[in-house]
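Mods, move this if it's the wrong board.
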Amino acid sequence: MKKIAKLENENLNLNSFSKFTGMHCSDIMKELSIDSGRASKNFLRVFVDKLITESGANIDNKEYIVKTIRMVQPHKTKESMSLRVVDYCSMVDQTWDISDFRKELSHTFVFFIFEGPASIDATVFKNVITYNFTEEDLMEAKKIWTDTILKIRANDYSSFISEKDTGTFFFKIHASTTSDVLPTPENGESVKRSFWIAKKFVNNRILIHME
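Not the wrong board. Structure tokens:
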């Protein structure tokens, strides 16, 4: 686990963010002349993207995956984390070792962590940490992936493993409306879904490493 104060990868210059830790997002916006769309639902992600640009950090999207975490209290979030929307038709022909899900989890994740209510002026930037999923994590992910693949191949889109069934990963809808669909292998269609990282995992395996 690497934090902004203890980086081993010199190419990933997260130290440029250290001077902002403990500051309210609104103050950071003023200092860097950032306009990140205060009314946007994805304010934090827009804010982080612009913060990365203004800070000159070298975070290559091909090697790293950037995510935001909003804590409601120290070391605790109430939100699970979505990953990329899956392609039903291509994923059923994949094996675990070459699956899109495993490839995604093989990246280094860079988590920008905030604390406070859903108010820009009350949100505080707390830290940046990186996380590499362990072999144990990947084995747990494989169980969810295998169950998901078997159900898609069986044309069963109603009984995927949910968050209440697991404290690690799960598979659920990732769409704003039920009309937001993708083709299925049976020449049908189903609402968009993705794999998710459970909030219990975020709290117990990622945020636990916060200073």
